[in-house]
Design goal:
The chain has four helices and five strands, in the order αββαβαββα. The termini are far apart. The chain has helices at about 5-20, 60-70, 95-105, 130; strands spanning about 30-40, 45, 80-85, 110-115, 125. Bound molecules: zinc ion (ZN). Zinc ion binds near residues 92, 93 and 96.
């Protein structure tokens, strides 16, 4: 990865790390932040939000995506997402992978995904297909 691109994604990871601090996670104390980079260069943050009714909890990645969509972004607008957690290691859950896949499948460009925990080992996937092979895709029906 060239230096300019590397700095762009390091900056995205720093934004996700900052978004993590807004996490509402009184039950697990597991904080997660996510930042989406849009095609027009905007960054949209999300954090995990827990609830006493655990099923009502929302992950940081989906919070960021739903926020982006609420702001008017659509498939075709998503370039990358960085996710940072307070755990030692981290990997996005299946629901978030499927949600990100929805936007990758409906645009012509892959969405790059970066994620890390406190160990600082950054995992980079160039496409959701690497993270969720055989994802549900209704265009195949
Ligand atoms: Zn998730």
């Amino acid at each position: 990865m060239n230096t300019i691109k590397q700095e762009k994604y390091n900056s995205l990871l720093r934004a996700a790390d900052k978004a993590k601090e807004n996490s509402y996670s009184p039950y697990s104390d597991f904080k997660v932040g996510a930042t989406i980079l849009t095609k027009d260069g905007k960054r949209i943050d999300g954090c995990n939000v827990e609830n006493a009714a655990y099923g009502s909890t929302m992950c940081a990645e989906r919070a960021a995506i739903y926020k982006a969509v609420s702001l008017g972004y659509k498939p075709g607008d998503f370039e990358a997402i960085a996710i940072v957690s307070s755990g030692k290691n981290f990997s996005p859950c299946g629901a978030c992978r499927q949600t990100i896949a929805e936007y990758e499948f409906k645009q012509s460009k892959n969405i790059e995904v970066f994620f890390t925990g406190e160990t600082g080992n950054i995992v980079k996937a160039n496409s959701l297909k690497d993270l969720l092979p055989f994802a549900f895709d209704n265009s195949l029906l």
